[in-house]
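Human: Cast an eye over this sequence-structure pair and say how the chain folds.
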Amino acid sequence: MHTATQERVIRPARNILGSLRLPGDKSISHRYGMLAAFAEGTSRFSNFSTGADCASTLACMQALGATVRKLDDGVIEVTGVGGHVTPSSEPLDCGNSGSTMRMISGLLAPQEGSFTLIGDASLSRRPMERIRKPLEAMGARLTLTEGHAPIHIEGTPLHAMEYTTPVPSAQVKTCVLLAGLQTEGTTTVHEAVRTRDHSELALRAFGAELTRTADSVSIRGPQTLHALEAAVPGDISSAAFFLSAATIFPGSSLVLDALGLNPTRAALLDVLTALGARIAVLNLEERNAELVGTVQISGPEEGMGSTEVRGALAAQLIDELPVLAAIAPYTSGGIRIRDAKELRVKESDRIALVAENLRAMGAEVEEFEDGLDVPGGQTLHGATINSGGDHRIAMAFSVAALRAEGDTLIQGAESAAISFPEFFDLLDKVADR
């Protein structure tokens, strides 16, 4: 399906004011949807992600024999296959979703039958070698197309192993854990930088036993998963755009309700605090081992300072780096980003696109192989933004446009629907014009 390219005009705002409840977390929705479809029984989820990526996960699992029903008020019901999928005669279409493709590969590798995974043009360029290596080490039979999708999997029993991820990746970790869930013995993943732990928390919520250390996670197999009823917390990666928008306006006031505040994802709050934002977290509670709370934020009256993101922090904030770079010109001392080479192999080359679009808006920026230097104290003007069909680029520069001089035209605005179809409507709601 070819979506017509849409453009969106973003007019400057005077301030950011109001309160929002955001759609369900994309990372958690992927995992809940996939595990529910694999489990025994019928699971129910409220506030499930509305993004196209999570719809791809559900569609693939339906093609493998699960039943998905959308009820009123955004609740979905998933009846699982009880640990045994039915191979599909058609290729499984993962759309634009790397999460779907990488995680489902681990789920399918130990199953009976053959499976082909395909994706759109962007996903077909993204690196899949990183899942082939650990799965083959477990005895899996899969073939890639020059290191990319389409992926063909011939299901076969696997053996447990220990694996150290060369690049921090929650998707690769999850892929190996899902294969280990179905494999005799104990499978262990070691990681030098701790990545988001939604998979571990979700597997436990569905009844699996896992063991964690500071730098590893182990799963014993085979285990059976059981249905779950849960409310998906608001997506903090989606919240990043609104939190950043509030930070660039002195005296702003924004409240985000029922937001997921998983410690492996909430580092953005620390970075915005370092820039001078005043942030309060209220009503913190635990739901299915995920932390959820209400966040109040206001921008610093004296303007933003400066900060540097590198090392483990860059890995934790990989999805939020484009919007941090986009607001960096409005800081007093700029933002330096390093150790973020992974940005070059996301839905687009995000480092190159951020630099191109900042320059289009009149900013100075220095581009490095693994990051960017964006000086502070700059004035941006409205421009035509090339989103590159990348949802996070479209949304990041919509935020930067709120304080620019003149209107900004976002090309490829429809790409925001991949993760966040409601984005522009919610931005209009809190932008005081």
Notes: Residues 7-24+233-432 form a domain with the UDP-n-acetylglucosamine1-carboxyvinyl-transferase; Chain fold (CATH 3.65.10.10). The first helix runs from residue 26 to 38. The mean pLDDT is 95.
